[in-house]
Design a protein that fits this description.
Helix content is 39%, strand content 24%. It has helices at residues 16-29, 77-83, 103-106, 116-122, 132-139, 145-154, 161-171, 177-189; strands at residues 4-11, 33-40, 48-56, 69-74, 87-96, 126-130. The longest helix is centred in the first third of the chain and has 14 residues, at 16-29.
Amino acid sequence: MKTTSLMIVGVGGQGTLLASKLLGKLLVSQGYDVKVSEVHGMSQRGGSVVTYVKYGDKVYSPVITEGEADYIVSFEKIEAARYVSCLKEGGRIVVNTQEIDPMPVIIGNTVYPTDVLDTIKAAGVNIDAFDALTLAEQAGSSKAVNIVLMGRLAKYLDISKEDWLRAIESTVPERFKELNLKAFELGYSI
């Protein structure tokens, strides 16, 4: 089996690390060799956070370089633009259309670009962009964006929905299970 490479990118505090933990646990349960590597920027201050996930029969390194990612899941539009060069030709990027102002915008040195997704689309990238924040709020918490995005990613991976749901149930704390299962269903069903 070929190795599949995924990147989960976002801003500190959005739940990218829980998403990568869930994905890693799910892939191991499927019998894959899985390597996960987390790269923290200034995650506690809204900085960029990246997780590499590779899986297959045998994986030697989790690192993903330019043009290698089969999938990128981006929790924010600028993060999608920042890492789109890592996507391989024919790969797919799943993007939350939420905008989180980076520090240069916050301090007034620049403005948030209005054409981020149009620029990515114009480059011929397979992009699945949607408002995961609104779906997370419908599920019961804006913090469930990560699981909404995992629900959307599930549409593209050859793993049953039931296995995803079992992985969620075994990964999230009991008091958040119902919320996360609902968030997954909302992401999966759009």
